């Protein structure tokens, strides 16, 4: 038993020595992992890190440079105005806001894809050449929606190196926060118009209940179904969604 075990170990050791030569001669080529672009390997690694960073903040970019902010604020005011706490659920409102954003931003996404992103993926443009073409459609969209007052505010507060005299060449670090402030303001304006009729219903129901002396009856018990009925009868979802989309045309 001992001699046979020794023979097996010797055979295994011999095979290891024979096959270890070609294996050791081979080296791991990492060039296929990195993108075939100009510059050193360190530069390409930095590009990959930058790409992963952009992908990690993609939800934030969606909120910052699209119509998502206005839609989500309007739907939040709607649910608060009706008095419903969990209906529709958050996932439904967020999904509706998201797909309405894709609907409104469709031409902008198409322009960005056709003029910048697709040529870059086809190696017709470098990253430095494609970036302005990718960003330009979003810049045009934000410039069409931003208020001059908000744009002037951030431009005046910026350092001299960031300030711009031409509206079309203004820095994104000025344009993006100004656009977000404008969208939040318009979202609150639309929210006020949404809440106002529901507030009138609450006041009427409360006045009637108090005049009838029913102090122990909560006005919400009567006003909530009346507000839901009112919103359904006027086809509120069609009206609200249609007007929100038209606000960008």
Describe the structure.
The protein is mainly alpha-helical and 249 residues long. It contains 11 helices and no strands. It starts with a helix and ends with a helix.
Give a short summary of the structure.
With 249 residues, this protein is mainly α. It has helices at 2-25, 41-56, 58-65, 68-82, 90-104, 106-121, 127-145, 148-157, 172-211, 219-233, 236-246.
Approximate shape: elongated
Low-confidence stretches: 17-30
Mean pLDDT rating: 77
What Rg do the Cα atoms give?
Answer: 30 Å
What is the helix tally? 11
> What is the number of strand segments?
0
The share of residues in helices is over 70%
Topology:
Layout: H1 2-25, H2 41-56, H3 58-65, H4 68-82, H5 90-104, H6 106-121, H7 127-145, H8 148-157, H9 172-211, H10 219-233, H11 236-246
